[in-house]
Recover the amino acids of this structure.
């Protein structure tokens, strides 16, 4: 991943909703360097979701229909 792509994705992890920022930004900082192109693609599409969907998924109030998103939610929520 290029430095420009890393910065752009990190910026997209900053949602402006504190509950999401506390989860997404630190997770990205810890795992971004080890993500392959397919995982980065899933993350990019995941971040296209609305804040309300992301919040519901991250709090366990609902599950994403897309299996790749559900797996990503599980990874993010696992300490």
């Amino acid at each position: 991943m290029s430095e420009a792509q890393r910065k752009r994705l990190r910026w997209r992890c900053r949602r402006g909703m504190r509950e999401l920022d506390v989860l997404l930004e630190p997770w990205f900082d810890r795992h971004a360097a080890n993500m392959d192109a397919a995982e980065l693609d899933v993350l990019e599409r995941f971040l296209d979701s609305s804040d309300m969907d992301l919040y519901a998924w991250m709090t366990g109030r609902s599950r994403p229909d897309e299996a790749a998103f559900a797996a990503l939610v599980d990874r993010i929520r696992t300490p």
